[in-house]
């Protein structure tokens, strides 16, 4: 089944072409994958593989970009928490004194730190509202949200100093900071306004509002680990070593799904395949529109499989393993009680427990993997696509539950978008969300959002229609239509 393996690799590579910036988590090393076989237990040393990595910024000429009419573009290099980072910024002529910090998604495992210029909808909208925007390359690649937060915050606090140093321009200090980001950048934007972040960050910024879009968070790595372990067991490969998973994942898919021209369609071919789909639906947010289309999306389904799901150190961002499934029962039924079959299957998958102290609170900065805990006191507006199989909608449900627990529920508005891609928003959806956040922050007018915790409402065939706007989007022609 080598053709199937090649297809998965191609799917992961193709992922970067989807509408918005994305995460495309890299495969775990064989050593990392072996934890389920008894390797890596009892680690106590807080030494990360990530600490030995070295990155480099682009040449100054490669940082340049063209400003929109009526605005001025700036770029340069500054010192981040892991080393040099680059910055980009754009100021409108009618600048209102506010800056929106934009946080980009996962950039892979390369050594080069590429500049960030946000999408056209974001830039157009921010500048039209009178805001400047600024973005960091971050001083590290990989899934380093710690660097993303600290480097973005330092840039926010010292931006006007860098512009005076590099461009001899004298802007006044900003009077307001907002933060927005997508995917891993959404994780960054959400974590940046958390109370713990404000208390522990080396460079704390009092953001007055946040726009985390299609956000990942710490539980993302539980999902990746869960799904791949369930695939392995249902496909009949539970006896095979997990560290060899990428060697037989193509054969596993052949045992579960129909194929077309050597490629999996992700349409179940048997009871095991259907059980896998039902388990995935329950793990990613329950019965909802566009789940089927997302499940059959070869790019993002392939991206989940391509991670291997086994690297609980988040490719060396943590020193020890964080993956834990000790509270999970893998279910394909929807009754109130677990069935005996579900309990037996869960036992066959096996129990994996996170190592103690894998992601501790630190006294020199935020955690290595900053947490999204729902503990904030500023307006936060999110959007998430219902069919996102890579960074699933369930993150929004967890976010709502956490916010309600911390008394932050009134400050959180969430929107469901009917699209089968990761971060697959139209320009209109993106622009509307930014305008609504800015209006909420500055006028106190709270925008509308969707209920995310009521299973009956989420399962309604018209769920997500309220804030889905197909203008300027692509690939939605064959989706179930809103009335």
From TrEMBL:
One of its GO terms (molecular function) is hydrolase activity. Keywords: Hydrolase, Signal. Transmembrane segments: none annotated. The keyword Hydrolase applies. It comes from the Bacteria. Residues 1-26 form the signal peptide. This is Alpha/beta hydrolase. It comes from Marinobacter panjinensis.
